[in-house]
């Protein structure tokens, strides 16, 4: 799977936020780092066209995001920083079922997939629990399960571990490391980058460094010193 940024520019409220990003992401796991406000989330959100570039384009596996946002969103699952904001139904089972709507599956087929997903993600014991009573770690697990149920080729995760304690951070790290999907991970948790193949450092809307995780992280540390 190739995620291609072709000279991507983006403005928020008339202010440039991305200033010409070009890169081909082909590795299994890619990290995106950079200081607050540098444009990481904005860049991640162009991948499934949550933000429309003002210039340039994003192409995912040959599909131009601006021309076929639905097609791109079938390929790309997106995890937001606050998992709770991504949960739309009252209970775990209902929320997972909801994520399968619109795919043309029968009720029985949906139920079977939801049961399998809950078993796989260790959520079965919480099937009928109100989602808002789940811990942040469980909500993050649920949000990921909902995304994976739609069988995307790519998972874009925007600071998915921000709210997690150390134990849940480790569990999330394991889940991300085991993903068969291509992963684009925006994070301030630098230890998560030990598991990735390539890191992009974003600074002021541009790619300031791109390459081996250890080298790019060292550059970032120097930049922030
Ligand atoms: N919807 C919006 N409207 C106006 N400005 C925005 C909007 N979203 C983001 N921005 C601005 O764009 C810039 C880049 O924001 P972005 O969220 O992409 O940065 P980030 O690198 O992900 O930051 P952080 O590490 O704090 O999450 C910031 O200056 C931010 O204030």
Automatic annotation (TrEMBL):
One Gene Ontology term, aspect cellular component: ATP-binding cassette (ABC) transporter complex
InterPro entries noted in UniProt: AAA+_ATPase, ABC_transporter-like_ATP-bd, ABC_transpr_CbiO/EcfA_su, ECF_ABC_transporter_ATP-bd, P-loop_NTPase
Keywords: ATP-binding, Hydrolase, Nucleotide-binding, Transport
GO function term, MF aspect, one: ATP binding
Start and end residues of each ABC transporter domain: 3-225
SUPFAM superfamilies the UniProt entry points to: P-loop containing nucleoside triphosphate hydrolases (SSF52540)
PROSITE patterns: ABC_TRANSPORTER_2
Pfam families per the UniProt record, alphabetical: ABC_tran
TM segment ranges: none
Entry-linked SMART domains: AAA
PANTHER family in alphabetical order: ENERGY-COUPLING FACTOR TRANSPORTER ATP-BINDING PROTEIN ECFA1 (PTHR43553:SF24), HEAVY METAL TRANSPORTER (PTHR43553)
Family that this chain belongs to: Belongs to the ABC transporter superfamily.
Record's protein name: Biotin transport system ATP-binding protein
Organism: Janibacter alkaliphilus
């Amino acid at each position: 799977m190739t995620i291609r940024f072709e000279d991507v520019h983006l403005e928020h409220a008339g202010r440039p936020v991305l200033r010409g990003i070009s890169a081909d992401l082909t590795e299994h796991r890619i990290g995106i780092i950079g200081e607050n406000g540098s444009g990481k989330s904005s860049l991640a959100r162009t991948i499934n066209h949550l933000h429309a570039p003002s210039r340039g384009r994003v192409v995912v596996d040959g599909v131009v995001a601006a021309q076929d946002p639905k097609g791109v969103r079938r390929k790309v699952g997106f995890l937001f920083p606050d998992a709770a904001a991504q949960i739309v139904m009252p209970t775990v089972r209902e929320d997972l079922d909801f994520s399968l709507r619109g795919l043309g599956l029968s009720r029985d087929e949906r139920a079977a997939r939801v049961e399998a997903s809950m078993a796989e993600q260790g959520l079965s014991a919480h099937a009928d629990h109100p989602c808002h009573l789940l811990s942040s770690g469980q909500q993050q697990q649920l949000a990921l399960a909902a995304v994976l149920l739609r069988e995307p080729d790519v998972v874009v995760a925007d600071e998915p571990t921000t709210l997690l304690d150390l134990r849940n951070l480790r569990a999330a790290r394991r889940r991300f490391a085991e993903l068969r999907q291509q992963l684009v991970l925006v994070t301030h948790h630098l230890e998560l980058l030990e598991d990735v193949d390539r890191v992009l450092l974003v600074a002021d809307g541009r790619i300031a460094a791109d390459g081996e995780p250890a080298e790019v992280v060292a550059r970032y540390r120097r930049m922030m010193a």
